[in-house]
Specification:
By secondary structure, chain A is an alpha+beta fold. Chain A contains three helices and three strands; from the N terminus they run βαββαα. The termini of chain A are far apart. Classes of the chains: A alpha+beta, B alpha/beta. At the A-B interface, helix 1 and helix 2 of A face strand 1, strand 2, helix 1 and helix 3 of B.
Chain lengths: 111, 481
Amino acid sequence: MTITIDLSIYPLDLVLRTCHVFMSRCYVTPHTVANGRIAVEFVARDESDSLRDLAGAFSNALLDARLRAVITDETRAIRELLVAQAFCEADLLDRRDIEGDEHTDPRGIAG
Amino acid sequence: MSGYGLMPFRFARFDDARTIVVNEAGEHHFLANEDLSRLVMHELPGGDETFLDLKAKHFLFDSDSLAPFELLATKIRSKKAFLDGFTSLHIFVISLRCEHSCHYCQVSRVSSDRRRYDMSEETARRALDLAFRSPAPRLKIELQGGEPLLHFERVSQIVEEAEHRAEEQDREVEVVVTSNLAMLDDDMLAFFRDHGVSLSTSIDGPEELHNANRPRPGNDSHAKAIDGIRRAREALGHDRVAALMTATRASLQCPEAIVSEYVRLGFSSIFLRPLSPYGFALRSVRTTGYSMREFLDFYVRALDAILTVNRNGTYLAETYAQLLLTRMLTPFATGYVDLQSPAGAGIGAVVYNYDGDVYASDESRMLAEMGDTRFRLGNVQSDSYEAIFGGETLRKIVAASVAESIPGCADCAFLPWCGADPVHHYATTGDVVPHIPGSDFHEKNFFIFKHLLSLYERDPAIRRIFWSWIRNEAVQSEEVA
């Protein structure tokens, strides 16, 4: 079974992410087609699996992926600020560059 | 500001009607499916109960105040507090010798007369040098084997030297000896009592199951362990002796009997552990092994039996559930080297093998015994603290175990409660980065998170039992009946 997806609604990275999630449930292969659309082909791993159900679940998962993308885009700056604030007192620097010199060659640049 | 803004969170469809949302600090909330869309599209009305719940739990904000962000940042820092202090658990493999020949043993056992597999005095001293270089304010030293009591001379040396160094440095050190207790004598017990050492042992269930899982000459492993537990409790105190179980294929048939055995022996906790994919466990997988699905069916039945025990007035916590519930329901960090992000291999725990080789985890040591030394960090005799704990090998392990950057984990709603174990992933798939769809590690943890949440949501009595596990204190039986 094959479904076609409009890339103006679901960008390619979302389609591929969703394909990845479905890899354990079926064989899933994306193909490029014309006019800003992509086709995703499903082959059942087990003969008893319903391809129609798989394709339906895939479409729902795409909607969830789109929703996740909206949340991620809106909260990206806040997430970065939160993590920076959470670890602002931690000493996480790699001190090799600060404390090293040409004699100690901490990164082994001289070979 | 007008309207509201979203704070970062992840979500998963929980059942046909509900979605669970989990924020960066691990706080969660259940929403009707349609409310998730309304939340993301900024369509939730301000006075709505759902709106207020989500605001209180830091899923959204509706003012220009920085206070919610500062509070959430503090909670995120608390959740990652297991990173503070660097390596706190130092495991010493005293000897590879063991008189048991357990089918599932992770370690390479050798017959008990081959002393070349014993840790030397000098190796123990050098390993202690490294352990005491760790900046962790509290150190935990675990002495294991093989069977460490077969080389008691080294056990006593390490305990006494650790005690001396701790006193000199004004640090706290806790020592635990992991033993099958078969060789435990009164002199050893007196030593453990005088030096505040705790014991950890294995009880796999009733006698027949235990002896089948843990063969030894005389087929009396269970009787020896029970006798050792009794004497150790008398000498050290009831709570200074803990036990673990490992589920084999035979165990899957009798979860209720295993739980009953722990109750009969007076334990307050039981740790339901699947086989590990290492060492002899891997070689004997045909006779002792099973699928993760089969283990999870066993886990559900055993947990049910444990909850019944608690309902009947006896406190018994399941250790894995206790750990996960603490992560899910409290702001506190719970370090568990096999399930944290980044993983605790090397930075939370480290293993000094009998020959001085240093490994990021017991599992990495086992891989080395099978011929794969990729997780060897160095040797206590030839490598410095900086080379071992700051070297490329450990840096690569840590980098591979940041679940926030692993495909499949990054989007998972349960990420703030979960983690990665690069050594496990490598042992099972050949890659330190997991392939989440089809991963037994993911299958186990995703299922248990959902199962615990379902139980917690469904039954107020179970909710009280779970909180008693988190607080580690019994509740009145009428509250949970």
